Every structure is written in structure tokens, then in C-alpha cells.
Amino acid sequence: MFSRPAVWIVGAIVCSTSATTPAGPKEIRLDPTGMRITESVRIVPRVYELTDRNDQGAVMIVGDDLTVDFQGATLAGSPAGTEPDAFAGRGIAIHGRNVTLNNAKVRGYKVGIFAEDSPGVTISGCDVSGNYRQRLNSTVEREDLSDWLYGHENDANEWLRYGAGIYLFRCPGATVRDSRGRNGQNGICVVRCNRARIVDNNMSFMSGWGLAMWRSSECEVFNNKFDWCMRGYSHGVYSRGQDSAGILAYEQCNRNLFAYNSATHSGDGFFLYAGNETLKKTGRGGCNGNILYRNDFSHAAANGIEATFSDGNIFIENILDECTHGVWAGYSYNTIIENNTIRNCANGISIEHGHNNRIAGNTVSDTGMGVHLWWDDDEDLLESVFGRAQKRCPSRENSVIANRFERVKTAIRLADDADSLVAGNSMTQVDVSVDLQRNWEGVRLGLPEARGASLDSQGRGGISVIRQPLDVTEWTPLDIVGREPRLLARRGKQNTFLPEGARRGRRYIFVDEWGPYDFSDVRLFPSRVLGGPRAAIQVLGPDSRYRVTNVAGQVKVTPMSGRLPEKLTVQAAEPGLHRFAIEIKVDDQTLRATGALLSAEWLVEFYAWSEADDPRNGTEAWRRIMGSAPLDRVTVPAIDFTWYSRPPSDKVPQDHFATVATSKVHLPTGAYHVQTVSDDGVRVLVDDQPVIDNWTRHAPTPDEAIVRLKSGEHRIRIEHFEIDGHAQLQFWMEPAAR
Questions:
Q1: Which residues contact 473 (CB under 8 A, 6 or more apart)?
Q2: Taking a C-beta distance cutoff of 8 angstroms, is the pair 718, 734 a contact?
Q3: Of 659, 688, 667, whose CA–CA distance to 596 is shortest?
Q4: Confidence class of residue 13 from pLDDT cuts 50, 70 and 90?
């Protein structure tokens, strides 16, 4: 026979419960209006729909030495069908010393679990999947700069605008273990939490950061999975990561241990930055003395390891495959980079403005540039507070010893790098062993490298050739385990690394409007398409066959069948503006994509302008620019230019240029939706009538208009000017919604 549930008060909320059992704390049901828990309890496992309208927490745990076990109960903060960028509030808020939260499932909030001023808090066995994430504007075909993250400020908890599965603020000695999250923006954020322990968690398939740390030192981060933390990536089209990362360590994070983690297929595998305090305020400090040991940071869009403006970091026995840079350590010093494996990268180890760094015992293979050390005249940084404190950041007194280079185009390049040692390195199928450029005063070369050196003819310096090349036995690798026995004694239990035969490689990174695809369902991205004469659509899904079953409109689709995942090309069959719809069958599911393609020939002309003829000064200034001879002319099938900070061509300046694009299109009678994205000013004229006019300096900005036209041929003219910095001009057109 069941006993009648008791009734008691938890905090200020009346809750019903099953009778107390000898097995442990009381068991309660959560109140649907939210509640405050002030004693150890167990939660009756079920789904609780609890909103949080004031960011205080739908459930608040307040007090010291409490244990709250959710027993798998779920907190749902938003109704089904709510878009992830509309999630709000905090699921569970913790305030107290030595609080333990076990086995909660929290979804549909801006922040799943938030702990503040809670020393010794422990979060164990929780699932924070499906919390807040921003909608991305980047597509398969083009990057949108609005998607870049900005993590450089968080002293006022600015990171909260990006949401998190778990956010710890001023919680020294915190522990997060055996917890899981995916399909959110950020997994775990650790802010001002010294001596935190993050172990055996899986925070993967995030659109921002798997783990993000701010002003947190002496922490242990062991045996976690932070794979596929990525945003704004399209394989073979653009690959910059937009400052996403598997692990992020920003602003005075010192003496932390990161070991046995997998952070693959992310923007950066590991991203460390000293912070604005060092760079802009004091010139001192940094993120210093951190150890990265036996992690896998492969398949990063940008860098396997990025560590900048910092002192005394150690990277040992990490795997850094298929990255743009295996290690990027600009402006860093006293760094030890030993016994890492770097394969199939564009660049192996790259350090600008670094000194006293040791690069030893690494294996670098199938890579364009093996090790690159250099100084350049980066005046803004050299004259910054940090640059002046570091005496203009020389590149000098580095050592590149006992490394193995295999199938590398240029093994080692030193440019304006002085007093460095290069010796004892082995070379197999290497085009250039050592390339010395500009000033190499005091460089010492081992004999094999000296014979294979390629020296810049305009360089200067004195080379000291070591007659007896450094024997590998003269280099003693750092005994990092002996120095830090915790690396073995306190490691986690989870086998984090991708198993043999698992999907591996950047070709398996797919990002849609909500972030990285996790291979769990079947979907199209984008399902709504605008483009020039052709557009791309990703059909994503676990390994299975697909078939295009219906195509409506004057377009061709290829391929019409195959295996997932696949990228389809939709191409206009003839000139003009074509609305289309396609259906794709995958097993028992039917997917649909719609859109419009504008197939036209555009003449694009580029002009230069001076300050005296700033286009914003009025029509006369623009007429003078148009009265000059074009610097370059091109014919293109679409207006889809993202120049970033590069010039449109080698005939056109990087800044202070103007663009004019013209075309003629035959259209039936109807209303049309005209759209642009521009940086800087843009005007669109249809049949000499202005329809879009944003003739201002601005960051990449969308503009749109509806224009009604009669049947016939219509002239389209797009005018644009670029001031400086980033430059962008894109144009689309489609029939307006009926």
C-alpha cells in the first residue's frame, strides 16, 4: 500500500512529496510556478515546464552543504517549437557553499545551470543539451561577418548574451563532471573560478565554445569531449571558424592543466589569448604557464592550438592534424612545443614576434610550411602598451631542434629572426630545409640544414655553422609528468578520442543556420535559397541513400541521387529570374527546398577615389569619380563579393574604391523583392529609379525593397563605395511573396 504524500514548505513554496524514506533526502515534485530549494532533496523524475522571466532561475538552490538530485527529471524552459534564439531565463540557479547538483536535464533556457558565489559547487551527471544559440546568417555559399563571436570582454559577464549550458561565476574549487550538452551555443563557461575541475564531460556540437574560461587559474580540464564546436564553416568555400573553439582560455588564465581532451572539428581546437588587460592596459601578465598534454585538437578550421601574447606555456604530445596552422603562437615567449604530431596542415608551427621559444621533437608531415618564425612591422601592435613593454616584440633566441620533417615543402623559415638555433632536425622528401630571409644575425645552423639552406639574396646576417650537428641525445625532453604528477593521478575515466573508423576530417563539418550538424537526423540547409545562376543545398543525414523526386521551375539539379551527406547544385537552365521548388526523398521522409535564381551577365567596373572626392560629399563628387577611367573591368554571373580587407583585384586599391555593376534582365509583370548586403555605401537603381539607398559608412548591412515592374527588359545598376577595412557587396532578387 502506498502512503499518502506529505506536504511541506521548501523555502517559500509549498510542495508535495512522497513520504520520507530511509534511503535518503525527501523526494519532491517541482512547483509549476518555480521554486526555491533550501535543503537536500530528490526530485520526482518527470518533465517540468518552468519559465524564468526575471533571470533569477526557474529553480533556485540556496544554502550551504546541500545535495539536490534530479534523478533524471527534466526542466523545460520554452514551449515546443520555440526557436533557439528566443530561449530566455535560467533553468537552475545555485547560491551557496558546497552545493551538489546531480542528474538534472535542463533545456530551453538562455542558461541551463547558473552558479554564482558558490565555492565548492559540484555539478554531476547533468544534461544541458538544447539551450540557447544564435541563428547564423552564413550559408553554404557565403560567410556573414555578423556571425563572428566577440569574447574579449567579460568582466561584466558579457558572455551571458551568448548563453551557456553551465555558467559558473566566482565559484572557486568548482567541479563539473560526467555531464553532457550539445546543440547549444556554449557548453561550460568558467568565470573567475580558480582551482575548478572539469572532467569527463561531453559538450560537443556547439555553435560557439565547448569550454570557455575567463580569469580562472590552477584548474584541471581532463578527459572531456569538445568536438564539433563550430560556426560559419563551408567546406571548400570558406573556413575561418569565426572565433569558435573547442576550448577557450581568455584573460589571465594561468597554470591550468588541459590533458586527454578531444576538441576536434572546431574553429580552433584550443584558443588562448592573454586578454585586453595585458594587450591594452598593462603590457604585463597574460595567460601563462598552462600545460596542454595529450589532447587531440585536429581538423580545426583555423588553428589546432592558438596561444598569443603569453609566457611559459607548454604544449606536449598533442595531435594537430588538418588545421590551417597546427600551432599559432604569435607574440608568445618561453613557450615549449615538444613531441607533438602535426600532419596535413597548411602550416605546422607559426610564431611571429616570439622569443625564447623551444620547438623540439615534433613530427611535421605532409605540410606546406613546417616551422615559420618571423618579425614584421605590425606598427599598431608594436606601439601598443604590450608592444612597448616587450621592446617591440623581437623574434629571436628561439630553438628548432630534433624535429622530424617529412614531405614538407619548406621545413623551416626564419625571417628577421636573430640569434636562434636550428639543429639536429631530420628531413625526408623536403623541398627546402631552411629558408633564411632578411635579417638572420647570429643564427646557428646544424651542418645538414646549412647544406640545404635557401638564403634570400637580399638578406643580411652572419650564420654560424655548427660543424658537429646537434645529436638528438643532447636534447632532453621535458619530463612533464614528473613535473606535474596530477596528469596521471587525477585523470578522468572517459575515453575521449574519436574511435577508429569514426567520421574524421574537415569534410565532415557541416554547419546550418543553428550550428554544427550532429548526424542525428535528416535535414536540408538551406531550405530557402537565393542565388545567382546557381546555388548549393546540403542534404544532411546519417549514411543512407537519397533521391530527388520532383523539380519545379527552369532549373537543373545535380546529382539527382546518391548517399548522404551530399551537396546539391541547383542551376538556372536559361537566363532570367527563376523561382524553383525541389523535393528530395530520404528513406520515408520527403524534404523540400524552395528559392529563386537570377541568371544574368553583370559588367562590373572599379574606380579609385580620394578624400577630396569622398562619395558621401554629394552628387558632384560621385560624378567626378565616374568621370575617371575605370581601374578594372570584369564580367561576372552574380554580384556576390566578399573582399574582406583585400582589394578586388591587383589593379584596384584595398581602400577608397568604388564599384558599379550593371545588367539587363527580362522579367514578367509583378512585384519583386530586391536585397543587398553592403560595406560600405550602396545604391540600387532599377530603370534609373532608386529603390535602395544606404549611402553611408557602415559594417556589413542588409537592405531591401519591393519594386513593381511591367513585363519587359529592365536595367539594374548597383553603385557602391568602400572606405577602408572590410569590403562587401552582394545582391539578390526574387519574386515578392504573393
A1: none
A2: no
A3: 667
A4: very low
**What integer is the mean pLDDT of 623-644?**
94
DSSP bridge partners of 685: 690, 717
Per-chain mean pLDDT for the chain = 91
Residue 377 has what pLDDT? Answer: 83
Question: Does residue 461 register a pLDDT over 70?
Answer: no
367-393: average pLDDT: 85
Q: Quick check: 285 and 308 in contact, CB under 8 A?
A: no
Per-residue pLDDT reduced to its tens digit, 381-429: 777 788 787 778 789 999 999 999 999 999 999 999 999 999 889 999 9
Contact in structure between 242 and 267 (CB atoms under 8 Å) = yes
Distance of alpha carbon 71 from alpha carbon 42, whole angstroms? 7
pLDDT bin (cut points 50, 70, 90) of residue 463 is: low
- Dihedral of CA atoms 412, 413, 419, 425 in degrees, nearest 10, equals 10
Q: What is the mean pLDDT of residues 224-232?
A: 96
Tally of CA atoms within 13 A in the half-sphere of 436 that contains its CB: 26
Please give the torsion angle defined by the CA atoms of residues 420, 422, 423 and 424, in that order, rounded to the nearest 10 degrees. Answer: 130
DSSP state of 136: P
Burial of residue 729, with CB atoms counted within 10 A of its CB: 0-12 exposed, 13-18 middle, 19 or more buried: buried
Query: Is 215:179 a contact under the CB 8 Å cutoff?
Result: no
Q: Which amino acid is at 12?
A: A
User: Is the four-CA dihedral 501, 506, 511, 515 of positive or negative sign?
Assistant: positive
pLDDT at 577 over 80: yes
10 Å Cβ neighbour count for 693?
A: 14
Alpha-carbon span 644 to 220, nearest angstrom: 39
pTM: 0.88
Higher pLDDT, 379 or 187: 187
* CB hemisphere CA count around 251 (13 angstroms): 18
Distance, in Å, from the CA atom of 298 to the CA atom of 319, rounded to the nearest integer, reads 6
- pLDDT at position 388: 80
> Do 401 and 359 touch, CB atoms closer than 8 A?
yes
Burial annotation 79-99 (CB, 10 A radius, 16+ → b, else e): eeeeebeebbbbbbbbbbeeb
Which phi and psi (to 5°) does residue 90 adopt? -120, 135
User: Mean pLDDT throughout 130-155?
Assistant: 92
User: Regarding predicted confidence, which is higher, 577 or 382?
Assistant: 577
Residues in the chain: 738
Half-sphere exposure of residue 680, counting CA atoms within 13 Å on the CB side? 17
Q: Measured at the alpha carbon of residue 207, what is the angle toward residues 205 and 210, in degrees to the nearest 5?
A: 65
At 557 the three-state DSSP class reads strand
- Which structural domains are found in the chain, ordered by start? 521-597 (2.60.40.10), 600-735 (2.60.120.260)
How many whole angstroms separate alpha carbon 719 and alpha carbon 704?
15
Residues 356, 315: contact at Cβ < 8 Å? no
- 56 vs 235: CA distance, rounded Å: 41
- The values of phi and psi at residue 527, to 5°, are -90, -15
β-pairing, 426-428 vs 404-415, is parallel
Buried b (16+ CB within 10 A) or exposed e, 616-643: eeeeebbebbeeeeebeeeeebbbbbbb
Q: In this model, does residue 9 exceed pLDDT 90?
A: no
8 A C-beta contact, residue 259 and residue 294? yes
